[in-house]
Design goal:
Structural class: mainly alpha
Helix content: over 70%
Strand content: under 5%
Radius of gyration: 17 Å
Low-confidence stretches: none
Mean pLDDT: 90
Distance between the termini: 16 Å
Length: 76
């Protein structure tokens, strides 16, 4: 049962990372050269949300992988 939970944590982390990448790279994209204030705020919001999601996804994935390693070591 625990193996299923750790696999789900790893998959959730990967999905969260991909969502963050989409927000930062695709939705946010390259910042505008001389943007209006509203465009600058929109870009910053997408970029910040993308960075937070990528960080959270990476941490979640690493925790899942670490949990999987610890589980396999103590199962023997």
């Amino acid at each position: 049962m625990k193996g299923n939970i750790t696999s789900a944590v790893i998959i959730a982390g990967i999905i969260l990372f991909l969502i963050g990448f989409y927000l930062a790279a695709i939705k946010g994209g390259i910042p505008y050269q001389d943007p209006a204030t509203q465009m600058q705020i929109k870009w910053q919001a997408y970029h910040l949300a993308g960075e937070w999601n990528m960080s959270a996804g990476l941490i979640l994935t690493l925790c899942g992988v670490l949990s999987k390693i610890v589980e396999s070591r103590f199962r023997k």
